[in-house]
């Protein structure tokens, strides 16, 4: 009734462990799909080889005995259908995992915003780096893209010193686990908690606007003093 704008705050710890569980589930589905597709490819190759050998036997006027090639082809075909069904099943599970991860990412972004009081500009930039729309492709998956984005933030706008801005070659490939990604996300959240911002405009006397990576607040200075973080 006093005309003050509505303020939303979140004071509980961020549920990052639940977020990481969703990431693990999604990555596991991706790895299973890759393994099943590889096995399906091998089985398809075997089936084509058997098929060619049988065709050669049937073309000969005096064909040699089949030596159970027909039985082997039948078993290979059954295995081919079985693997195809497995691939289809994993694809469905991956789609569900991607949808769950997308919803969880949107939720965690909202909690980060209210936990650290991010304005629209900072929130939009953080959302762009977290890629809440989970769309996997054969070349790159969500985990690789987001981990590369977190590393980029930590080496640019969220870097605490010049040493951390050193350019390091990073391969973008499917990880075996999410250990590094978890660490990078946790560090990003920690630096946001200590006052760092992705975008912090300061207008000088000439009206020009500059971007500042870290806010030199007393809290940020006190908490970052002596901290050593390995990326």
TrEMBL record:
Residues 218-231 have a biased composition (Basic and acidic residues). It holds the Pfam family PTHB1_CtH. InterPro entries: PTHB1 (IPR026511), PTHB1_CtH_dom (IPR055364), PTHB1_hp_dom (IPR055363). It comes from the Eukaryota. GO terms for biological process: cilium assembly. Residues 118-192 form the PTHB1 C-terminal helix bundle domain. It comes from Fibrocapsa japonica. One of its GO terms (cellular component) is BBSome. Residues 13-115 form the PTHB1 hairpin domain. Residues 204-231 are annotated as: Disordered. This is PTHB1 C-terminal domain-containing protein.
């Amino acid at each position: 009734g006093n005309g003050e704008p509505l303020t939303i705050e979140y004071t509980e710890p961020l549920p990052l462990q639940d977020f990481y569980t969703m990431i693990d589930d999604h990555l596991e589905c991706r790895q299973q799909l890759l393994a099943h597709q590889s096995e399906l490819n091998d089985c398809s190759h075997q089936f084509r080889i058997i098929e060619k050998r049988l065709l050669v036997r049937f073309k000969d006027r005096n064909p040699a005995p089949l030596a159970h090639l027909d039985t082997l082809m039948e078993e290979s075909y059954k295995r081919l259908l079985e693997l195809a069904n497995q691939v289809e099943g994993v694809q469905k599970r991956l789609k569900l995992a991607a949808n769950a991860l997308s919803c969880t990412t949107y939720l965690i972004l909202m909690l980060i915003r209210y936990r650290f009081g991010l304005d629209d500009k900072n929130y939009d930039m953080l959302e762009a780096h977290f890629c809440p729309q989970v769309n996997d492709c054969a070349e790159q998956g969500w985990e690789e893209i987001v981990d590369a984005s977190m590393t980029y933030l930590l080496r640019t706008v969220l870097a605490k010193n010049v040493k951390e801005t050193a350019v390091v070659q990073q391969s973008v490939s499917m990880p075996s686990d999410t250990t590094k990604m978890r660490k990078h996300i946790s560090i990003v959240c920690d630096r946001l908690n200590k006052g760092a911002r992705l975008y912090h405009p300061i207008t000088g006397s000439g009206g020009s606007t500059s971007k500042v990576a870290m806010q030199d607040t007393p809290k940020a200075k006190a908490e970052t003093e002596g901290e050593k973080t390995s990326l």
